[in-house]
Each structure stands twice: as structure tokens, then as C-alpha cells.
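STRUCTURE:
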């Protein structure tokens, strides 16, 4: 519990987003104070506050869609809450519908799930707003909606001037990640994981549903493909043991050139002098290394030459987005890889409407809990009773770890906010402009710490809420106490509901890990095919599967009473599957772009046999059984090694043989881990 309260995450919020978020909240209040329309300013500020976390980096089209969806949901929910606020049965029925539909949106991802959460929150907030007529109801609805639309306007204001800025940022981050990988090598696993996340985010940014379709996007597609190939060559180079000559060259000249490419991409211009200087430095170092070619490992030298070719291509393309006139860029297939393509909304919804779906169970749990909390807040008669169901909407998540974390941090943050607000009450003068300045600081803290430490963010939010209500004429002391009581009750309701009907990750982890191994099977199988597109698709599929598996294991380890054998299996498979992925990537770099491969007729069958063995291990893991006895891939690997070495005169055969040897080792290790765990589980069942 103490670890939950003290854990922090790195701050990743750009200052531009922070400033425009604070402006969207503060400016309506400033207008309301200046022109004596304080209540209208408060309603607009509330709409902006609840939309803040939907303003995330990304393509402008994506931002526009996301923020408009949240703003419209806020308006509809506000209208419903105001209209039904005096009809409790109808309000409870509406809360069931909004709670179920809003929570079910988690099946579409976090960004869309926030639309549902905002709708649930504003449905109950609106019940506490004064609206004595239909005209007043419409006015408040429009004011709340205007807050979200104002933030939307701020978020996309730079679109005409900075048209492809988000795409440049994502691409630049990937090339900086490649530079970190070149410098760190095997020693920096954190850089490799960050690069994986960055490449997945880049795929979504460049090729997602709301991407730009302008001709300039071809440039970004070329740079994305070059980044993929560069990563493959860096991985293969690490596996080939670059030595004391090539190793420093990669860590220095190659990494420097990648940083320069990242700068050029971010600038949107062609800093030819800097890029050419860095490229000349790489070529000079490569020439010095070539003078000692006889002393260099053949494999490392070959991969260095291939890497230099990829870097030279990146330099040639790095400034083209800002160039005028015709763009001489190779056309790339700009469809999102199959692994990242979302199902149609109808298909995904249909798949989620079953008790076997975690999203469905979360929706039912949320609807029941949200409605009960709303009834409780209405019948207890406490001030601002809507805070109880609002807390439930925020705290209750689809998994145990997140629910526990949000519950504990919300209570702790509210207590901290109570202390903070009490101090502010006794220090601040009654001047509204002073209070507005302090509210702006608290808003900045709420937005900044939202992804760093949720408890501190809640403390800032508590102070914001109290100050907002003082603008409406409410005394701060009762407000603070009422918020603390409502937060404790709402968090307790959410945690109790999850305890009564939990969705444990331990029931899904084995399936998720099996999906990971199956994705690696598909990736390995693609190496026996000739299509570059198929390899690219399967590589991305493996990357997505690994991200899902890591998230699942993280949730598993945070749950109470997780079986030790399952935890050991999950951690061991993650570790060994990472080595497996590196072996497959190395093999792809070796055979993917070679026109003349030694023993080509044997490589394909060996790859397919290895993939079949790995696929059976995945099926065994899914079915909780021991892997079947398949053709021994070790014997096939030795036959292949003899042939490729005999038919190769430049050392490529030995390198392929070594890569295949590591691949077999990795597959056998994964099979051993699965067999060991299955046997231990069978013994435990037998003893029980």
C-alpha cells in the first residue's frame, strides 16, 4: 500500500499542452468575473476541466475527433442530468444506461473510454446545478459544452502553422530512440522498451484512422520503414559482437548521425551542413575501420555496411517534409498493419457484449455501482452528494490493480487537498483575482501531476473545486468536509464492488502469453516467405503482442494472492521471449535482404519447422498441457549449419548458423519453461 502511495511516473506533458489547458479553464472564469457572469464562467470552466485529459499529443485530426467526442458527450450528459434531476427513478434508470454504455467503451481503448467517464461524471454533476426552466437547462448545457469546444479550439489552433508537427515529433522520438539504442546496446534494455513503445505510437500516428492523407505522408512512411530496418541492423550488429573497433564507431558516429536525423525531422527543414558533416564523420570512421578489415569480425563488418546504407538513406530523406516542389520519395503502402487495425465498431461491440468479455463485466459492475452510488448520494442528503457517484466513475476500473491504486490515491489526495485548501483559506485574501491566480496554479498542478502521481493531482483538484465553489458564494469549510466524506464513501463503494465481483488478471495471463508466442510464430514463419509486407506486418504484430503481454503481467503481479508458479511462468516467459524476438530479428536482418543466400533451399524448411515447434508451445501454454513431441529442430539446425558454412565463402554462412543456433536455444528454453510449469501445476492438483 505504501508503494502505491509513493510510486511516481516520469513527467511527459509538453509545456504547450499545459499552458493551453490552464488557459481554457481560467479564461472563462476571468470573463465571468469581469462581466458579472460568474455562474456561466464556472459552468464553462467545469466543461474544460473534464476535457483536459483528452487533450493529448497526436495528429490534429485525431485530437479534433477525440475532443469533439468528449465535448458532445459532456453536453448530452449535462442535459440529461439537468432534465432528470427532480425525477429520481428516471435519473437512476438513465444512470444505469449511461454507466453501462460509458464503461463498455473501455473495449475501444483509453481515449474513447474517457468519453464514457466524462458522460458519467457530468450526468451526476448536472443534478446539482440550478436550472429552473428549459431555457436555463439549455443555457447551462451550452456553457458546459463550450468549455470543451474552447479547449478543442486551443488544441488545434496551431494546425495551419504547424501542420505536421505531431507526426514530426513522433518520428523524431523514434530516431532518438534508435540513437539511444546505438549508444546503449545490450546494456540499455530501457531504451529498447521505450523504442518499442515509440514505434507503435508512430504507427498509430502516421497510419491510424485519423491520419492525414496529404502527399507529404509518403515521406514519413519512408522514414518509418528506414527506422525499422535500422533497428534490425542494430539488433543484428549487437548479436554479432561488434568488437573494439566497430563498437565505438556505432556508439559514437552512428548514434550522432541518428540524433542529427532526429533534429532534421523535428525542424522540418534540411540542415544539410550538419547532416553532411555527420555523414562524412561516419564514412571517415568506416574508412578507417576498413583499413583493418582483416582484423574485424566478418559479421559485424557486413552489418555495419548495411547499417551505413540505411543511415545514408535516412539522411537523404530527413529534410524532405519541409522541401518545396515535387518529392522524390518511394511510394509505400500506407495502410495500418493488421496488428494495429481496429475491428469495425460494430464487430468490436458485438464481441464485447458477452459475459466472457472483461469489458462487459466491467460495464455491468460499473452501471450497478454507479447507480447505487447515485441513489446513496441522493438519499443521504449530504452536500454535493454527486461526488459519491463521481468518485465511483473515476475509481472503478476494469482491473483490480488500477481500481486499488485510484481508490487509495484519491482518498490520500483528497486528505492532502483538504490540508492544502485549509491553509489557502486562511492565507488568501477575498480578492477574486488572487483566488483566480491560485486556481490557475492548482489547475497546472492537476494537469501536470495527472500522469506523474494521481494523489498529488487529486490534491490540486480538491483545491480547485473548493475555489470554484467560492466563486459561486459557497463557504469553503463545509465544502472541504463534504468532499472528503463523499470521496471516502465513493472509493469504498468502488473497492467493495470489485471485491464482490472481481475480474482477476490471473485468469487471462496464460491466454495473453500464448498470444505473444503465437505472434512470434507468425513473425518467424514470415521469414520463410518472400514478401516484405508480410514480414513488416508480422513484426508489428509481435510488437503489439509483447506490449499487451507486459501490461497483463504487470497487472498480474499487482494482484493479491497471485499463484507463485503463474508469476514465475509469466516473468520467465517475458524474459525469454525477449531473447527469442532478438534472435528472430537478427535472422531477418541476415536473410531478409540477401540476393544470394547459401543453402537457400534448407533455410525455408528449417524456419517453418522452428515456427511449428514454437506454435505448438503456444498452443500447449494456452491449453495448460505439455508441448507435443515434434521433429527435432536441433538436428535440422545442425544440418543447416553444415550446409550454409560449406556453401559460403564470405562468412555469411557462419553468421546464419550462429543465429539459427541461438533461435533453437531460445525455442527450447521457452518450451522447457512451459513444460516445467505445467508439470508443477499437475503435481499440485494431484497432491490436492
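SEQUENCE:
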Amino acid at each position: 500500500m505504501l508503494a502505491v502511495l509513493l510510486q511516481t511516473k516520469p513527467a511527459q506533458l509538453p509545456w504547450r499542452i499545459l499552458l493551453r489547458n490552464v488557459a481554457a479553464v481560467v479564461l472563462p472564469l476571468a470573463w465571468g468575473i469581469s462581466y458579472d457572469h460568474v455562474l456561466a464562467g464556472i459552468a464553462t470552466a467545469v466543461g474544460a476541466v473534464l476535457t483536459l485529459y483528452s487533450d493529448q499529443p497526436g495528429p490534429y485530426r485525431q485530437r479534433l475527433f477525440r475532443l469533439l467526442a468528449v465535448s458532445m458527450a459532456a453536453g448530452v450528459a449535462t442535459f440529461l442530468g439537468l432534465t432528470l434531476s427532480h425525477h429520481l427513478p428516471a435519473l437512476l434508470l438513465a444512470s444505469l444506461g449511461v454507466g453501462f454504455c460509458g464503461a463498455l467503451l473501455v473495449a475501444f481503448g483509453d481515449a474513447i473510454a474517457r468519453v464514457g467517464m466524462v458522460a458519467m461524471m457530468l450526468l451526476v454533476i448536472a443534478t446539482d446545478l440550478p436550472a429552473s426552466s428549459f431555457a436555463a437547462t439549455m443555457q447551462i448545457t451550452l456553457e458546459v459544452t463550450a468549455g470543451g469546444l474552447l479547449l478543442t479550439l486551443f488544441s488545434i489552433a496551431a494546425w495551419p502553422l504547424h501542420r505536421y508537427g505531431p507526426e514530426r515529433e513522433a518520428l523524431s522520438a523514434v530516431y532518438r530512440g534508435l540513437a539511444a539504442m546505438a549508444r546503449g546496446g545490450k546494456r540499455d534494455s530501457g531504451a529498447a522498451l521505450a523504442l518499442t513503445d515509440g514505434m507503435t505510437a508512430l504507427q498509430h500516428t502516421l497510419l491510424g484512422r485519423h491520419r492525414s492523407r496529404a502527399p507529404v505522408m509518403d515521406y514519413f512512411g519512408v522514414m518509418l520503414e528506414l527506422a525499422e530496418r535500422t533497428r534490425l541492423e542494430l539488433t543484428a550488429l549487437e548479436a554479432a559482437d561488434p568488437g573494439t573497433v566497430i563498437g565505438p564507431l556505432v556508439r559514437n558516429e552512428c548514434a550522432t548521425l541518428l540524433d542529427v536525423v532526429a533534429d532534421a525531422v523535428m525542424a522540418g527543414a534540411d540542415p544539410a551542413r550538419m547532416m553532411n558533416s555527420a555523414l562524412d564523420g561516419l564514412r571517415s570512421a568506416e574508412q578507417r575501420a576498413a583499413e583493418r578489415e582483416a582484423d574485424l569480425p566478418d559479421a559485424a563488418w557486413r552489418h555495419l555496411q548495411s547499417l551505413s546504407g540505411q543511415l545514408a538513406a535516412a539522411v537523404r530523406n530527413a529534410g524532405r517534409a519541409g522541401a518545396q516542389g515535387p518529392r522524390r520519395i518511394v511510394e509505400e503502402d500506407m495502410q495500418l498493419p493488421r496488428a494495429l487495425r481496429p475491428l469495425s465498431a460494430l464487430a468490436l461491440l458485438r464481441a464485447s457484449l458477452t459475459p466472457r468479455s472483461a469489458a462487459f463485466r466491467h460495464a455491468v459492475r460499473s452501471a450497478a455501482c454507479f447507480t447505487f452510488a447515485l441513489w446513496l448520494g441522493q438519499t443521504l442528503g449530504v452536500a454535493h452528494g454527486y461526488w459519491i457517484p463521481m468518485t465511483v466513475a473515476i475509481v472503478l476500473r476494469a482491473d483490480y490493480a488500477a481500481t486499488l491504486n485510484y481508490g487509495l490515491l484519491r482518498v490520500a489526495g483528497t486528505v492532502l487537498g483538504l490540508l492544502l485548501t485549509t491553509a489557502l483559506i486562511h492565507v488568501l485574501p477575498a480578492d477574486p483575482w488572487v483566488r483566480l491566480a491560485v486556481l490557475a496554479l492548482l489547475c497546472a498542478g492537476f494537469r501536470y501531476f495527472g500522469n506523474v502521481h494521481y494523489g498529488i493531482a487529486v490534491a490540486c483538484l480538491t483545491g480547485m473545486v473548493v475555489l470554484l465553489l467560492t466563486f459561486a458564494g459557497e463557504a469553503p469549510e463545509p465544502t472541504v468536509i463534504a468532499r472528503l466524506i463523499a470521496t471516502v464513501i465513493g472509493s469504498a463503494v468502488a473497492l467493495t464492488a470489485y471485491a464482490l465481483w472481481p475480474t482477476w488478471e490471473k485468469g487471462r495471463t496464460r491466454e495473453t502469453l500464448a498470444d505473444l508466442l503465437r505472434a512470434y510464430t507468425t513473425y518467424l514463419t514470415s521469414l520463410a516467405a518472400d514478401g516484405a509486407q508480410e514480414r513488416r506486418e508480422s513484426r508489428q504484430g509481435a510488437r503489439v503482442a509483447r506490449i499487451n503481454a507486459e501490461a497483463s503481467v504487470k497487472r498480474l503481479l499487482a494482484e493479491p494472492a497471485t499463484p507463485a508458479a503463474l508469476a514465475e511462468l509469466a516473468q520467465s516467459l517475458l524474459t525469454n521471449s525477449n531473447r527469442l524476438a532478438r534472435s528472430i530479428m537478427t535472422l531477418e536482418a541476415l536473410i531478409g535482404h540477401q540476393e544470394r543466400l547459401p543453402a537457400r533451399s534448407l533455410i525455408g524448411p528449417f524456419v517453418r519447422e522452428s515456427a511449428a515447434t514454437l506454435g505448438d508451445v503456444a498452443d500447449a501454454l494456452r491449453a495448460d498441457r505439455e508441448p507435443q513431441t515434434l521433429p527435432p529442430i536441433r538436428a535440422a539446425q545442425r544440418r543447416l549449419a553444415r550446409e550454409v558454412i560449406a556453401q559460403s565463402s564470405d562468412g555469411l554462412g557462419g553468421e546464419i548458423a550462429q543465429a539459427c543456433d541461438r533461435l533453437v536455444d531460445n525455442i527450447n528454453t521457452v518450451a522447457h519453461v512451459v513444460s516445467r510449469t505445467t508439470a508443477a501445476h499437475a503435481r499440485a492438483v494431484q497432491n490436492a
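REMARK: Residues 652-687 form the longest helix (36 residues).
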